[in-house]
Amino acid sequence: MTQIKKIGLLTSGGDAPGMNAAIRAVVRAAIYYELEVIGIRRGFEGIINDDCFPMDRKSVSNIIQRGGTILKSGRSERFATPVGRKLAFEQLKKNGIEALIAIGGNGTFIAADIFAKEYNFPIIGLPGTIDNDLIGTDFTIGYDTAINTAIDAIDKIRDTAESHARLFIVEVMGRDSGLIALRTGVGAGAEAVIIPDTSSNLDALYHRLEFGRKDKSSRIVLVAEGEEPNAAFEIGRMVKEKFPNYDTRVSVLGHIQRGGKPTCMDRVLASRLGVAAVERLLEGKSGEMVGLVHGEITYTPLENAVKHHITINPNFLKIVEILSL
Ligand code: F6P
Asked: For residue 177, which atom of ligand 1 is closest to its CA?
């Protein structure tokens, strides 16, 4: 056990449903273990700006069901610089904050890892991102809600697709990862899932449109956002050019995937990980992300959580192919 008495808590990067449930879990667990908690607004930028306030058990009442983050979020450019991090360290010292819990995704953990090493400052990360693109946890907080929101929207699009015998190209979020597209594609009964930079998926779609069943009354194709803007519109343009007989439309779901009430799965995940993060800090550990693998709490060095390229499970693509007969 360590002597830490006061911890700081922040959310950073893109907001994700379930971040509030994680905030609640951290604050309540910290109080349970007799720690003081300081909430930091707008991520790492809030440390530099000294935008902090003490949190008690009531400050997290009635938030488990709310989307967004009561701590606000942001991507801090200043914290990416040595000067900004020095300022941050000085502010933390001034406020007597001895450790941090940071809820976020890739960018958050890269920044947290640098800071933890540079100043030997205890930090534990909680995976909060709709992208599910971190190593060391089967699911990130927010992913389940986002894919359920996407499925709900696609079911509605399917009504129009059926009524007009259309092919819809639907873009979901995921700049660096196609995991939202993949799972949503299976769940929505998609014709194909296209993850930019894996051109074979586009070929698979062409093949299905050319040689597959012609009497389908609707078709949904899932596209992951990818790094280039307008991925779905570009694919829509190519499909229209190659298959002018299909009545093709493009729909981009956008930020609705980041909002809304978290699902039960995200609330439970956030609650378990939030408690585990506090306990891990008290064990004297630092520079780790707390995750859940096969139902068990796991700890992954922050640098490993962000380091690896997420590989797309080919079984999922195969399932899409088999079931789109
Ligand atoms: O990382 C979460 C995420 O929603 C990605 O899926 C998406 O590419 C990105 O954030 C969008 O970020 P912003 O809201 O800053 O445009």
From this structure: 6
CA dihedral over 126, 132, 137, 138, signed as positive or negative: positive
3-state secondary structure of 162: helix
* 140, 173, 177, 182: residue to mutate for ligand 1 pocket, most atoms within 8 A of CB: 173
Question: Ligand 1: does its nearest atom lie under 6 Å from the Cβ of 14?
Answer: yes
Cβ of 137 less than 6 Å from ligand 1: no
Per the listing, tokens 């009497």 go with 215
Tell the residue number behind the tokens 């309540």, with chain if given. Answer: 28
Note if 131 is an active site residue: yes
The token duo for 191 is 């014709």
CA angle 34, 38, 44 (to 5 degrees): 140
The length of the chain, given as a count of residues: 325
Position 312 confidence tier, pLDDT thresholds 50, 70, 90: confident
Please write the tens of the pLDDT for every residue from 19-36.
999 999 999 999 999 999
State pTM to two decimals: 0.96
